[in-house]
Task: inverse folding
């Protein structure tokens, strides 16, 4: 009997060990056109984001997160490939005027995506929301909403852009269909992106005397997006998936709403300033990532793919320059870098032809280097001057020169 119990104990331990070693599900939540401070947990004066606040409290939050580029398509492809835009060559939203945009899909066809890599581990994957790279299958997704047919309006998501604004049923169906199989979920809703048409029940919360209707609508859109995040996370809870799911949160680029008209203000979207490239980055994996908050360490979205791959038992490719955040803030890096390109490409195969800025962060300092001849670099002590109002390049020539050299070493041969 004791021998039988011993064998049974070994078998039970093996089964438990196998269950514990099961790879995590991965949910990537990507906000669309939202400034880094436009959350209640980041201290916004009015915007209410209770669901993302809860995610931030339960996960590990980097308040000094960045994306390398402040334009949605290249930023999203950083998240899909783990590569800088100049590496995967998707640096633009649109090809040159008059160019067949299908020609610009050649780069996704030669890329190795996160969905591709996870499929090697038996994952199924679902795309919803923003997606510029044709049909979702071109990105390695097994399931998805975007057809990508330019003859039917395919450009940056088509049917996928309905997610969130028209509910989350496609995601619910995917979760129910793939029960028991590890999954990767790309949730990139067209929120709080324009059109800023929030439900009236939310808009009336933000309408107040002296506040622009344009601002009120944008702020209401931020809360609407937050509601959809709560619905998505609730789906995981209802299906018992939360404990073994790694949830990653980031935004594609910033947005500062103009007060007197539609559209974004300068120094936000498409700019190299923090209003365009800074974002909170949140990682939640119960029992594996301890809750906490880091307000000092700069991290960047190219870190997210190595983080996810490590969590799933996979190895980043040699081309990936990011560092895994799974064990906490990286301690072996002195700089993070980024690049801003034109909205419309000059040459879809030559990234440098469309370059507008390169930038670098070293500790408290941020340097912007314009690509256009004759424009001077800008240096900011970003921790003391988060809105980049006081250019110190003239007062700090040695620091400016040293950080410029660091940018050039990173950029060499690109």
Result:
């Amino acid at each position: 009997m004791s021998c039988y119990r011993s064998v049974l104990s070994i078998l039970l331990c093996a089964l438990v060990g196998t269950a514990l070693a099961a790879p995590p599900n991965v949910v990537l939540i990507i906000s669309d056109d939202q400034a880094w401070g436009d959350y209640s947990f980041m201290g916004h004066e009015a915007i209410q984001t209770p669901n993302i606040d809860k995610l931030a409290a339960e996960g590990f939050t980097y308040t000094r997160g960045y994306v390398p580029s402040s334009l949605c398509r290249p930023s999203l492809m950083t998240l899909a490939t783990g590569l800088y835009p100049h590496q995967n060559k998707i640096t633009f939203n649109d090809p040159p005027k008059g160019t067949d945009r299908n020609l610009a899909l050649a780069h996704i066809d030669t890329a190795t995506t996160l969905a591709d890599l996870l499929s090697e581990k038996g994952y199924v994957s679902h795309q919803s929301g923003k997606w510029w790279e044709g049909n979702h299958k071109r990105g390695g997704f097994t399931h998805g909403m975007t057809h990508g047919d330019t003859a039917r309006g395919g450009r940056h998501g088509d049917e996928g852009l309905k997610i969130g604004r028209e509910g989350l049923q496609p995601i619910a169906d995917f979760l129910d269909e793939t029960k028991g199989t590890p999954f990767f979920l790309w949730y990139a809703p067209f929120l709080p992106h324009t059109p800023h048409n929030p439900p009236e029940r939310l808009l009336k919360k933000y309408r107040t005397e002296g506040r622009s209707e344009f601002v009120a609508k944008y702020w209401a859109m931020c809360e609407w997006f937050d509601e959809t995040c709560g619905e998505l996370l609730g789906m995981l809870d209802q299906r018992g998936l939360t404990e073994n799911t790694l949830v990653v949160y980031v935004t594609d680029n910033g947005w500062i709403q103009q007060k007197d008209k539609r559209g974004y203000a300068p120094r936000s979207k498409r700019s190299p300033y923090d209003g365009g490239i800074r974002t909170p980055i949140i990682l939640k994996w119960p029992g594996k990532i301890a809750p906490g908050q880091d307000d000092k360490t700069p991290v960047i979205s190219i870190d997210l793919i190595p983080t996810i791959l490590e969590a799933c038992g996979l190895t980043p490719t040699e081309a990936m320059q990011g560092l895994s955040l799974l064990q906490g803030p990286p301690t072996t890096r002195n700089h993070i870098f980024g690049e801003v390109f034109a909205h419309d490409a000059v040459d879809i195969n030559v990234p440098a032809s469309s370059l507008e800025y390169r930038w670098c962060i070293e500790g408290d300092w941020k340097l912007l280097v314009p690509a256009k001849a004759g424009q001077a670099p800008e240096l900011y002590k970003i921790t003391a001057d988060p809105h980049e109002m006081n250019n110190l390049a003239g007062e700090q020539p040695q620091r400016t020169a040293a950080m410029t050299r660091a940018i050039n070493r990173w950029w060499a041969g690109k």
About this structure: The first strand starts at residue 25 and ends at 31.
